[in-house]
């Protein structure tokens, strides 16, 4: 069954004739977990923002998650009404999907932004997923939904002023669109075996990471930026869900053009 990916447009004015952004989330998360960020991005940049779900997550929770990032990408692309061009922002595993999109279809992608992502050929497994985080994920699986989502929030978010509201909402999402243990395992497998390309797939590439990330070591992003020779911007305290903790900081770096790397 084909679904239309949710889209956001500016509230105060019609979207300008700018390239839309596509936002891609990570492991066992769906488009609703972006919270207010897509609308904030649409309003600041005066553009359309598209938020597809990946197979096994969100409204696609009944589908089997692919064991390969490229296969995940192809399933995502089938959901979109157009073939681009797009600007991509990928968080965590979403960054791997975004990277493959830009590598395989460079004519469709104008800009690539990776947030707290990692590549298996550049970082060891214990940095790509901290052992303490893996233990917390495993222990949370048998917990009631609200308790599980609270543990996830505390692991990926450092800004806690909206903890109760977010956890209550996330628990609703988990009940409406539950991610199966099998799909969680398949997504973990796909992410674990992913190897990034030798060179940046598009010249206009930016890496963002956060020092407070308890899920993925921020050094993973540093390794990508260093290997590719692209800019890296680091938030001093935010967690893995950087777009929740510091949305304006992220958007500020999307507004400002990158220097010519030639």
What does this structure look like?
With 262 residues, the chain is of the alpha/beta class. It has one domain: Alpha/Beta hydrolase fold, catalytic domain (Rossmann fold). The chain is built from eleven helices and seven strands. The protein has helices spanning 37-45, 69-77, 93-104, 125-128, 131-140, 145-156, 163-176, 181-192, 219-228, 242-245, 247-255; strands spanning 7-8, 21-24, 49-50, 86-91, 109-115, 205-210, 232-235. Strands 1-3-2-4-5-6-7 form a seven-stranded mixed beta sheet, with helices on both faces. Strand 2 (21-24), helix 1 and strand 3 (49-50) form a beta-alpha-beta unit. Keywords: Hydrolase. InterPro entries: AB_hydrolase_1, AB_hydrolase_fold, Carboxylesterase_BioH. One of its GO terms (molecular function) is hydrolase activity.
At the fold tier of CATH, the topology name is Rossmann fold
| Number of structural units classed as domains | 1
Report the radius of gyration as a whole number of Å.
Answer: 17 Å
**What is the distance, rounded to the nearest whole angstrom, between the alpha carbons of the first and last residues?**
45 Å
Query: What CATH architecture would you give?
Result: 3-Layer(aba) Sandwich
Assign the CATH superfamily: Alpha/Beta hydrolase fold, catalytic domain
Widest β-sheet, arrangement of strands: 1-3-2-4-5-6-7
Strand element count: 7
Helix content: 40-55%
Mean pLDDT: 95
Unreliable spans: none
């Amino acid at each position: 069954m084909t679904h239309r990916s949710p889209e956001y447009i500016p509230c105060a004015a019609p979207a300008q004739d700018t390239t839309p952004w596509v936002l891609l989330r990570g492991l066992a998360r769906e488009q609703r977990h972006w919270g207010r960020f897509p609308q904030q991005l649409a309003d600041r940049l005066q553009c359309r923002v598209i938020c597809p779900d990946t197979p096994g997550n969100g409204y696609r929770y009944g589908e089997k998650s692919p064991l390969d990032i490229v296969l995940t990408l192809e399933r995502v692309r089938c959901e979109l009404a157009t073939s681009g061009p797009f600007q991509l922002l990928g968080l965590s595993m979403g960054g791997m999907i975004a990277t493959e999109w830009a590598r395989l279809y460079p004519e469709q992608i104008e800009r690539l932004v990776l947030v707290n992502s990692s590549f298996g050929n550049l970082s060891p497994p214990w940095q790509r997923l901290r052992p303490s985080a893996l233990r917390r994920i495993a222990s949370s699986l048998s917990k009631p939904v609200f308790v599980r989502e609270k543990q996830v929030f505390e692991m990926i978010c450092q800004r806690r002023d909206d903890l109760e509201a977010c956890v209550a909402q996330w628990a609703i999402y988990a009940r409406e669109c539950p991610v199966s243990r099998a799909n969680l395992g398949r997504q973990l497998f796909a992410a674990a075996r992913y190897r990034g390309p030798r060179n940046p797939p598009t010249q206009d590439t930016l890496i963002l990471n956060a020092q407070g990330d308890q899920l993925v070591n921020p050094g993973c992003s540093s390794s990508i930026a260093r290997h590719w020779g692209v800019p890296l911007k680091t938030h001093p305290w935010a967690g893995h869900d950087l777009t929740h903790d510091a949305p304006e900081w992220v958007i500020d770096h999307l507004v400002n053009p990158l220097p010519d790397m030639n």
